[in-house]
Specification:
Bound molecules: pyridoxal-5'-phosphate
Family: Belongs to the DegT/DnrJ/EryC1 family.
CATH topology of the largest domain: Aspartate Aminotransferase, domain 2
GO molecular function, one term: transaminase activity
Keywords: Aminotransferase, Pyridoxal phosphate, Transferase
CATH superfamily of the largest domain: Type I PLP-dependent aspartate aminotransferase-like (Major domain)
Strand content: 5-15%
Shape: globular
Protein name: Aminotransferase class I/II-fold pyridoxal phosphate-dependent enzyme
CATH architecture of the largest domain: 3-Layer(aba) Sandwich
Helix content: 25-40%
Radius of gyration: 21 Å
CATH class of the largest domain: Alpha Beta
Strand order of the largest sheet: 1-9-8-5-4-2-3-13
Number of helices: 13
């Protein structure tokens, strides 16, 4: 039996050990070490005029971002339905209510038309949404020009969930810098990993300093502990920041590798009738965190579930696309605007192995198994 091939595995082939050793010998492992600020300035340098605050997860970055946008109990927040639960759960942490919007087929991300419908409908009910959570799914940029035009027209800020899109660009601008606040995740299987970690980015200095303050228990600058607000223990630790610095140094190479992986899948599989890839619009460049395919069973004779089983038996890990949040039991009662675009993508899609370390031989093996399964079925 050949080795198993994981869906998305991190690579630590840079200076991770060097920074870890330095952090350990400094004795400062918590939120007071030197690498936290350095990771922030290195990340900021990649983000045009935006500054970064590094935190202990992408979820805590989303939670803080919603706090900073003034989301309070009873408020409504619009959120892309086709995403991981962490995009919406922090809305509920704040006692606010998510309103879900369907995707469009060009990018698989939130549909600008349906977003405007949803806003108009909520306004008619006298409930102006407090924010719009947009996701760049699997690294693919959403239609930010259209979305930002709507955001400006109705004066509702955009929170960009770029957890999966570090290194993706939209008309030359880094994803994460396109809305009012952007967030990243550095969890175990994201394009760079710090074990667990995240970041919040903004071009507003006040937002950044407030985020730092709230993420360290909202401690006043006094010789004793004094608190005027409820804060959070959300800051990144120095060990994670050290790993983050090393990982970030490798990001361009990681993006390049993942884009090559995507190109190879396309070169082999795109010709099969009934197989489609996540489209990349003109002006957009995905980091292709995950390479994904859609399988139209009517044309291929095999479903995504069957193909997943075939690959699983060969030790190849795949995953279904995110189950849309409006279909999740926890969000059964949330309002939803749209049709069945995200639902159809979910029912046909499969995420293929996309690790930075996936070598051409292993990828060929995966492609052969898929080609075989498709030829047998048709
Ligand atoms: C991973 C992810 C998150 C959450 O990040 P964590 O660091 O795991 O908390 C949020 N949104 C999306 C779209 C994600 O993929």
């Amino acid at each position: 039996m050949a080795d198993t091939i994981p869906l998305s595995f991190p690579v630590f082939d840079g200076k991770e050990n060097f920074y870890l050793q330095k952090a350990l010998s400094s004795g400062l492992l918590a939120t007071n070490g030197e690498f936290i600020g350095l990771f922030e300035s290195n990340l900021s340098m990649r983000m045009k005029s935006h500054q970064a605050v590094v935190l202990n997860s992408g979820t805590s970055a989303l939670h803080l971002a919603l706090v900073l946008l003034g989301v309070s109990p009873g408020d409504e927040v619009i959120c892309q339905s086709f995403t991981f639960c962490a995009s919406a759960n922090p809305i509920v942490y704040l006692g606010a209510k998510p309103v879900f919007v369907d995707s469009e087929s060009d990018t698989w991300n939130i549909s600008p038309e349906l977003l405007e419908d949803a806003i108009l409908s909520r306004l008619a009910l006298g409930r102006k949404p407090k924010a719009i959570v947009v996701v760049h799914l699997f690294g693919m940029p959403a239609k930010m020009m259209e979305i930002n035009a709507i955001s400006e027209k109705y004066e509702i800020p955009v929170l960009e969930d770029a957890a999966e899109a570090l290194g993706s660009t939209y008309h030359g601008q880094p994803c994460g810098t396109l809305g009012s606040i952007g967030i990243f995740s550095f969890n175990g299987n994201k394009i760079i990993s710090t074990g667990g970690g995240g970041a919040l980015i903004s071009d507003d200095t006040q937002t950044i300093s407030k985020a730092k303050y709230l993420s360290t228990q909202a401690r006043e600058e006094l010789p004793y502990y004094q608190h005027l607000e409820i804060g959070y223990n959300y800051r990144m630790n120095n060990l994670a920041a050290g790993i983050g610095i090393a990982q970030l140094e490798r990001l361009d190479d990681f993006v390049c590798k993942r884009r090559q992986i995507n190109q190879r899948y396309r070169a082999h599989l795109e010709e099969f009738p009934g197989i489609a890839f996540q489209p990349e619009q003109a002006g957009s460049s995905s980091n292709f965190w995950l390479s994904t395919i859609l399988i139209d069973e009517n044309l291929t004779g095999i479903s995504n579930k069957e193909l997943r089983k075939v690959l699983d038996e060969e030790g190849i890990e795949t995953r279904f696309l995110w189950k849309p949040l409006h279909l999740q039991p926890i969000y059964r009662d949330a309002p939803f605007y749209g049709g069945n675009v995200a639902e159809a993508l979910f029912s046909k899609g499969l995420c293929l192995p996309s690790s930075t370390s996936l070598n051409p031989e292993d990828q060929e093996r995966i492609v052969h198994i898929i080609e075989n399964a498709l030829s047998k079925a048709s």
